[in-house]
Design goal:
alpha/beta; Rossmann fold; 11 helices; 32% helix; binds adenosine-5'-triphosphate; binds nickel (II) ion; ABC_transporter-like_CS; ATP binding; nucleotide-binding; transport; ABC-type nickel transporter activity
């Protein structure tokens, strides 16, 4: 069944009064759709309803107008400061945001517009997740059983054993609880929970923190292997070196938005091929590029500047940057959200 029929059929099932409107929207999206695109996130916004003083409710907008595309067989690294929205992007794709989150925008997977019900069906099967912390493992469940979750019951034990052997875990480890394993072993258990034959998209949230060089190399190889099998990978990381080592492109997040999506090959020399001043600053802050520090810090979600999010720290800020938030545009095979980028 081709994409168009599939989405049309889904609409038929819903059969609501907005059917014509939905079909028109999907028609427009189909034009943009390319066979090699596995995931297309566009205009994603996430807000949280929060209670402040005097029981007043406010909406805190933590992700705004965020775009990201992942092709089949591609590793897309997502980098950016703490709090820039990297994990929330992962949680939005997986449909595991907390209930006070308000989400808008489109997430297309294999050309199909995902709603919460569909995300739940795909989660742990076609779209799998390696979470940021080993604390995501259930402390009261044996690790072997945790790896079997979501597997077909009749083959679960056999497949879990295969994964343990593949990732250097011993049979006797199956019956252990998380607290009985080392940090490195727990990371391998986490990776095992994400390996499913039907997985097409793997989202790894900080898969490499604190790993010793050998384990780091091993994890990077595991991720490359998944991409070589044609799976799409989103690798969220603070480790720009690892990102440059294995990714195809790098998405740079800042204060809940993508400022640039660049090819790995753009990160070279003085950063002259990079498009956004923030990406250039990140590149120059690396030890091998002189550790140059940029003044200021990422703005808080409740204190965002009205124009370009980076304008208070940018050397090239002009009056339009202070008034208007730049739109994402394509330049030299990359994407950038900057008025002055050429
Ligand atoms: N449940 C929530 N309610 C309110 N704000 C939240 C909630 N979860 C996350 N946030 C806020 O959203 C922003 C983005 O958080 P997120 O966890 O995605 O950051 P991150 O880029 O993954 O950071 P890190 O690199 O530290 O993991 C942060 O400012 C965070 O405080
Ligand atoms: Ni995070």
């Amino acid at each position: 069944m081709n994409l168009f029929n599939k989405t049309k059929d889904n609409n038929k099932e819903n059969n609501n009064m907005d059917k014509n409107i939905d079909e028109i929207k999907i028609d427009e999206m189909k034009i943009e759709y390319s066979e090699s695109v596995l995931l297309d996130v566009s205009g994603l916004s996430v807000s949280f309803n929060q209670y402040v003083k005097n029981l007043k409710q406010v909406e805190l907008n933590v992700i705004h107008d965020l775009n990201l595309t992942v092709k089949k067989g591609e590793i897309v690294a997502v980098v950016g400061s703490s709090g820039s929205g990297k994990s929330l992007l992962a949680h939005a794709i997986l449909g595991i945001l907390p209930s006070n989150a308000v989400v808008s925008g489109n997430i297309l997977y294999n050309g199909e517009l995902l709603n919460d019900k569909r995300k739940k069906q795909l989660r742990g099967r076609e779209i799998t997740f390696i979470p940021q912390s080993v604390n995501y493992l259930d402390p009261l469940m044996k690790v072997g059983k945790q790896v079997q979750i979501g597997m077909d019951k009749k083959d679960a034990s056999k497949n879990q054993k295969k994964l343990f052997s593949r990732y250097g875990l011993k049979t006797k480890d199956e019956v252990k609880y998380p607290f009985e394993l080392s940090g490195g072993m727990l990371r391998r258990v986490l990776i095992s929970t994400s390996i499913r034959p039907e997985a097409n998209l793997i989202i790894a949230d900080e898969p490499t923190p604190g790993l010793h060089p050998e384990a780091l190399e091993e994890t990077k190889n595991q991720i490359k292997e998944l991409a070589n099998q044609g799976k799409g990978v989103i690798m969220i990381t603070h480790d720009i070196h690892s990102a440059l080592d294995i990714a195809d492109k790098i998405a740079v997040f800042y204060a809940g938005s993508t400022l640039e999506v660049a090819l790995v090959s753009d990160f070279e020399g003085e950063g002259e091929n990079l498009r956004h001043p923030y990406t250039k600053a990140l590149w120059k802050s690396l030890p091998q590029n002189g550790f140059k520090v940029t003044e200021g810090s990422q703005p808080m979600a409740n204190k965002l500047p009205s124009g370009c999010l980076y304008s208070p720290r940018c050397e090239n800020t002009c009056s339009i940057c202070k008034d208007e938030r730049p739109k994402m545009r394509e330049i030299r095979n990359g994407m950038v959200r900057c008025n002055n980028a050429t």
